[in-house]
Amino acid sequence: MASIKMQFEVPAKMKTWSLALIAVGLVALVTGLVTKGFSADEHEQTQFWGTLMYNSIFWTLVCNAAMFFIGVTTMAMGGFQQSFRRVPEAISTMVPIFGAITFAVLMYVIFGHKHHIYHWLDTEAVANDPILKGKAGFLNPVFFVIWTTLTIGLWSLFGWRIRKLNEQADGEPMTAEEGATFIYKNTVRAATFLVWFGLTVGSTIPWLWMMSIDPHWYSTMYSWYTFASSFVSGMSLIALWVIYLKNKGYLELTTQEHLHDIGKFMFAFSVFWTYLWFLYSGRIYGFLSTCLFGMQIFLKKLFTLSTECKVHTKAFSS
Known about the structure:
This protein is mostly helical. It has 2 domains: about 40-280; about 280-318. About 75% of the residues lie in helices and about 0% in strands. It has helices at about 10-35, 40-75, 85-90, 95-110, 125, 130-135, 140-165, 175-210, 220-245, 255-280, 280-315. α1 (about 10-35) crosses α2 and α2 (about 40-75) packs antiparallel against α8. The longest helix has about 35 residues, at about 280-315.
C-alpha cells in the first residue's frame, strides 16, 4: 500500500502544452470579440455569442455530469468507482469555473438584448405573438437570471460539499460509528444534488438555455436528450483520464474490469441517446411509417408470389 501514488504530478510537457493551448484560445477569443463579438453587424454578433454560449454550456454540463456519476453511484451503494473516484471529482471542480463563464455569457446575452439569439427578448415581438405571449411567464429576463443564478450556484455548492466530505476518507481509518455517519451524510448530500440535478438538467435548464432559442418549437424529450449527450461525454472524459493515469503508473487499484464498467456506462447511455434521438424527431416517425408500410406491401407480394409458385408447382407435378 505504501507504493500507491497519492498525488498526481503534472508533467512539465503537459504544463507547456496546456499553457500554449490556453494562449491560443485567448488569442482566438480576443480575435473573435474584435472581429465579430463587437461588430456593427448584428448577425456576426449573433454568430460569435451564440457559438461561445453553446460551448460554455456544453463544457459546464459535461463537467457537471461527472458529479452526477458520483451522486448516482453513491445512491446505488456502488463500490467499483472508489478506486478512481478522484477522477470524476477532479473533473467536477471545473463546474464553478465553466459555470462562471457560462453565467457571464448568458448575462451578456440577456442584458445586451441579443434578441437574435433569444427572440423572446424582443418585447414588441412578444406582444404581437400569441405563442411567445403564452410563454412569457417562463421566458422572461427576470426568471432567466434568477433560475440561472440558482442553478449554477447550487451545482457548485452541492458538488463542493460532496467533495469536502469525501476528503475525510483519505484520513485515518474510521470506526464503525464514524463509517455509518459518513455513509449517511454522503447519501444525503448525493441525494440532494441529484434532486437539484433532476430539476435543472433533467427538465428546466435545457428548455431555458437552449430550446428557447427557437421559442415556437418545443419537445418534451429535449432535456433528456441533452442529459444523455452530456452524460455520455462526461463518462468518455472520465475514461480518457483513467486510461491516461493508468498509463502513467497511477490508479494502481483500478483494473481492466473497472474500465470495462465505465465502457458499459458509455455504451448504455449511447444507446439511450440514440433511442431518444429516434423519439425526439417527428420526421423519423414519418420515415419509419413509410418504411414499415413499404415493407408490409413487399411481404404481402412476396407471400402471394410464394403461394402462386406452390400452386403452379403442384399443377405441374400432377
